[in-house]
Specification:
The chain has 182 residues and is α+β, with helices and mostly antiparallel strands. Helices cover 14% and strands 27% of the residues. The chain folds into two domains: 73 residues, 2-Layer Sandwich (Alpha-Beta Plaits), CATH 3.30.70.580; 94 residues, 2-Layer Sandwich (Alpha-Beta Plaits), CATH 3.30.70.1560.
């Protein structure tokens, strides 16, 4: 039977089983042999990581031609204008490629959000705001590069959902096995 694990990756944890450079890996949290991450989150990002032992499912979730939606909650520096939001929605020229159009909307700070360790740097004179961004691609540091390009650097990045799976009910470092799905 196929295994499918949803994991809330904490800040600072690597998306690989082996720890490196003083940062913990997935083996420090998930004692399940034979599963592998379907995609990655960089060390500075938090949130949903899916692990599976099914190569076809792993490919289906990560193949950019499949256009599987990935939804992020993004705390940015400043308050993006309507023009900045429109640019994110239309696609952003990052120099080496132009992103696909994204779904973008302002949101209030997500309720029930856990504090980040270490906390986000607080700057009294610079406000922050939250965006929900849904992509159908997932290139290296894409969300961070997109928000920086429109003048609003990412301060905190949480992947909330991949396709139909979400972080609902999972605290940082927690995981659950989902049966009968995939």
């Amino acid at each position: 039977m196929r295994r499918l694990i949803l994991f809330n990756k904490p800040y600072g944890v690597l998306s690989q089983f082996t720890p490196a450079d003083g940062h913990p890996g997935l083996a420090d949290y998930i004692p399940v042999p034979g599963v592998y991450a379907a995609g990655r989150l960089d060390r500075d990002s938090e949130g949903l990581l899916i692990l599976t032992d099914d190569g076809r499912l792993q490919h289906a979730l990560t193949d950019p031609r499949r256009h599987k939606p990935k939804t992020y909650w993004v705390q940015v520096e400043g308050v993006p204008s309507a023009q900045a939001l429109a640019q994110l929605r239309q696609g952003v020229d990052l120099g080496d490629y132009v992103t696909r159009p994204a779904k973008v909307r302002r949101i209030p700070e997500p309720t029930g959000l856990w504090p980040r360790d270490p906390p986000i740097r607080y700057r009294k004179s610079i406000p922050t705001s939250w965006l929900e961004i849904t992509l159908t691609e997932g290139k290296n540091r894409q969300v961070r590069r997109m928000t920086a390009r429109v003048g609003h650097p990412t301060l905190r990045l949480i992947r909330w959902a991949i396709d139909r799976w979400t972080l609902a009910g999972l605290a940082p470092g927690e995981w659950k096995e989902v049966r009968g799905e995939g």
